[in-house]
Design a protein that fits this description.
Blueprint (H helix, E strand, L loop, with lengths): L5 H12 L4 H8 L3 H9 L6 H7 L15
Length: 69
Amino acid sequence: MKKLTNAGIVERLKRLQGGRSARELAKEIGISHVYLLHIYSGKREPGPAVLGKLGIEREVVYRAVSGGA
């Protein structure tokens, strides 16, 4: 499975947007255009509606660091 960064998700969203406005893409996804713009700017992370549209799932990983219990 390929791991994506937020930048990679934004890149995929912009490809999906094509020549359309952010409002049009947001409406298609079912989110507000402000939320979409916040994802683009890095202020918010993409939620289930956005990830689902892109065929991406979120994975949370915890790892130990030195000095831990």
